[in-house]
Predict the 3D structure of the following.
Amino acid sequence: MSGPILELVNVTAHYGRIQALKGISLRAMPGEIVTIIGANGAGKSSTLMTICNVLRASSGDVRFEGRSVLPLSPDRLPPMGLCQVPEGRRIFPRLTVSENLDMGAFFRKDHEAIRRDKDMVYDLFPVLKERRRQPGGTLSGGEQQMLAIGRALMSRPKALLLDEPSLGLAPLIVKQIFAIIKRINEENRTTILLVEQNANLALQLATRGYVLETGKVVLEDDARALLGNPEIRKAYLGE
Amino acid sequence: MTPVSRTDSARSWLMFGLGLCWLFVLLWPLLGIGADGVLSFAETFAVWGRIAAAALVCMVVWRLRRSGSLGFLDAPAGSLRDGMARVAAGVPRPVWLIALAALALSFPLYTERYAQDVAVLVLVYVCLGLGLNVVVGLCGLLDLGYIAFYGVGAYTYALLSIHYDLSFWLSLPIAACLAAVAGCIIGYPTLRMRGDYLAIVTLGFGEIVRILLNNWMSLTNGPNGLLGIKSPGIYLPSLADGFSFEHLYMRKLEYLYYVILVLAVFTVIAVRRLNFSRIGRAWEAIREDETAAEVMGVNTFLLKLLAYASGAAFGGLAGVFFAARMRFVSPESFSFMESVMVLAMVVLGGMGSIPGIILGALALIALPEAFRGFELYRMLAFGGAMTVMMLIRPAGLIPAKRMGKRGEEAE
Amino acid sequence: MEIFLQQCINGLTLGGLYALIALGYTMVYGIIQLINFAHGEFFAAGGYVGVILLAWMAAQGMTQSHPWLCMGLALLLTMIYCAMLAMAVERVAYKPLRHSSRLSVLLSALGMSIFLQNGLMLTQGVYDKAYPTEMVSGLVTFGGLQISIMQILILSTTAVLLVGLNALVFRTNVGKAMRATAQDKVMSALVGINSGRIIALTFAIGAGLAAAAGIMVGFNYGSVRYDMGFVPGIKAFAAAVLGGIGNITGAMVGGLIIGMVEVMAAAYIQGGTEYKDVFAFIILIAVLYFMPTGIMGENVDDTRV
Amino acid sequence: MNRNMWRVLMLALALCLAATGPALGAKLKIGSLSPLTGPYAADGNDIANGVRAAIAAIEKEGGIPGFDGIELMAEDSACDPKQAVAAANKLVSAKVAGVVGAYCSSATIPASEVLAEEDIPMLTPASTNEKVTERGLKYMFRVCGRDDDQSVAAVTFLTGHLKAKTLYVVDDKTTYSQGLADNVEKLAAAKGIKVIAHDHVNQGDKDFSAVLTKIKSANPDALYMSLQNSASGALMLIQARRMGITAAVIGQDAVYHPQLMEIAKEAAEGAYLTFGFIDENTEAYKKFASAYAAFGKPGAYSGYAYDSAYVLLSAIKAAKSTDPAKVKAEIMKMDIQGASKKIKFMANGDSGSNYIIRMVKGGQFVNFWDPATGKTY
């Protein structure tokens, strides 16, 4: 496939009267890891929520594999291969780990393949296998993040949107999770759109990056170039 | 209105058709199978046909609006509405109030008993609605047993009047206090509960009070009710022999109308003042976020209790008047359905909004009366109207300006 | 002792019926936090449709030849009917208000309750409708205990339905999706669950169970009436809250407790029959005072009015 | 019956629409108050239909001179004091010449106070509570019997025919049903019958198993069942018989309704009820039966409602005026055989009671025992 797998064209969105997104345009090519960085309240999570139609875009267009997804309801997207791990992970707290994973594959009917995918996820995160009968709410933060990613993988996504996977986790676990994200990307050629506050880590992982400020894209470049950009280093990398 | 795609239109017509078929399936067993097991379609088709025709008209209008074909109507209608709003805004507030007061005061002069009676009932429910509004609208505590306080007030006056011949006016503060105490008793154990657990416990208390009224024979005379309650009395200056005062019972409906009008105005003013006081703001803080309010130093325990007590007191006042007006009380008047109706007024009118609640009371009392013409269809029309009103104006007829985002689930 | 056991059976029958109705409340509450006031009406509608279907079958002469088949068929069709009714009510009166305040939906539900109740009255008349109780009659005697066949039938049907519901909710993917939707609607949409459909299904299942209760009440007590949904509705709601609203096992336990308390209070406390509802509510209040989220309630988050 | 009901409703609606249409000439307006909705709608509709039947009968006899017909305002009292008062006020505003109603004593009493303020005659076909006529209201009449008389009939039957030694009393806590049950308990105790217990159930209950299990273990000779609703009575009978309770069951006039047999079927067989003696062989009853045919089977209060309306209308006819004083004078003069009983009013507005014991036999109510003579029919 030559065109971008995911493309946002001039998307705006509102919370009530407050404009959260003021014309976002971005794209991700198949197999890419794209990161969106920015300060708190810049509109990173809103961008992801708008892609998935949880937050309705006021104008502009969101295209997945060349097709506009705006008229679709959010639950139509995972079957198309667009899946999100939202901020705060949002594990179903009173479903067991295994049931949480089942939910990731809810729309799929190929039971045999689902079982194999589940084993694959358990391979990826052995701790989930140990805890598969435990309610999701009793897991630790890192385990929940793993579960959330594992649940998303159960839908066999072509593009995976990850919102702040490092939030509130110990550095060691963050490193582990980022390694797994890279593995997912490499093994399945899954496109990854990564929203992060930890700009340093994100840019090291990504191929390209976008910088968001107050609902607008202010900079777009190769990840390496962004890492070298003095302004970025000053604003987001704490130098 | 943006032009809509053809698929959207086709889809909604499909849904419409499906809905009608669905309705037919629902109607037919009820209308088409006789007690003797004979099947018939005529009646079902008659009823269904009428509903379908009405729905079709609505659907066509709606589709035309969606597609913009009725745009030519929207513009003048919109400008008419704007114009009216401008005129309304142009008239100063005092003029409104005076006009309203004049209308309210002169009401008995140009109306018949029936209208007055309905007006009296509406005003009683205005008092009740405003009292419940303190608990539900301001403090955010869902109370499904509010009518219990109304009952406490009514029985208090009934007993005082029958056994001690105490006057209406003296009974008002006594009943209000007793109702407030009852409010605290009911409020206290529920303070730890939140949300709908609170609702069921208040419902339980409401039922307990009703069952007590129904069974405590020696005090309340049980289901037989209490008879022989006196009307409110006043002393009128009389010039018959010298100058003296004559005691008069106000049994005439006009007088009662004025009494309840005074009570209602008092309630409106009191609730308004509470609303804009420190306490009112603290209540709203509790409603919006109890934990945050507590952290900010609001004594949620005391304030919630106070909300219960003051809400109950207004209910008690209304109850006293109710007993005096009916001159008869029985437990049937204090059933769960009454609680629900009062709550409905508050929600329908717009929680926390005083004019809204007045309108809500008017709607819910006057509608069943207006629908008397439908005879047996009366309550059917009423139930349908209630749902439709909620669908059209989910935030109430006149929503309060200061209501927060609470309850509008962030999805 | 014999009398005690007898009363236990009475309590179990009543409690099982409450539990069936309470399940609908609790499932709907669990998923959209709505106290569905119209739920009692589904129960009443179930009672009516059941007797109507049986009347038709009787006219075909089927009830004589295959009474058990007829009862099963009537039960099934009635459950389907009420499921459809509930879905229609949900679509018309609740779905458009999904993003409004919860009290608005509550009121819409109340309007629907009044509407349905009067709809039943207008189409079916104000008189009670008699059930063909002669289809199941007879007593079974265990020692000194007398249990009517109908009671046994009710207890077993209730048990089957409860077990079936448990299997549905905890074993199947749809059941898991229902629980997922109840816990986080946004997230469940993000994994591809159509929450609208799941909610409609929840209403359908809850109403189906209430319909089953309606038909069994009809058989057990001999008649149905258009306003019969109201009182059991309140009781079942109390049962749902007692067990911990939103919790399916809780609703079953709560229903049984309320049924038992009522019967035992009526049987063993002086003046208990007139105050039996008071005891039921006092138990409810006491339990909630010490366990503010009910017997089996999870910690619901602080969602209020 | 189902479709019949629907037709009745349609007819009612049509009547109502006609009533709101433009008046062609001076029509005589009378009102009826009864619970058309709510738990007592069954009896309430019987009452409204009884009045309609009386109007039809009077109009068939040539109507009332000076009026272009008779118009009925059938108002819903919902058995709720608040709504009953509102409805009464509506009738007052509409200037009705008289009112037939209401059903529940708790609705009749406050409504009658409203009507009394405007001197509108009120005839109750169903409120048997003593207080209804004992408040000194000038224009309050009662066509049905009184609770105290009914309890006497029941107790006389207990001692005179059943020779009961022990009695169990159950009521469902309404003004009417409890008042009656209390009277029975008192009288029975005075007559030397041992009252084992007096239990109460709640209105709208369907499950009586708890109280019935108690009754079964107490094993009384007789069970006095004072319920407000015939369907509740049927439910209690079914459950009692299913449990194997063999005590004689005595009900009262609120349980008296064809519904009792429809629902309870063979469980109702042999149940006794106190009810006003209705002579179905009189001319008046036949007239009533033919006028009522359009409304289905007469209910317990259909006859009383018919008589009430018939008395009111004939008094207006005789007085040639709707002036309340003249109408009252005519009503007091009246001494006729009505459909339900012989009607002759006493000074306080009561018209006497003629309670007898009827029994369910072969799915029908039959006259069984007369307390006045102590003889079976």
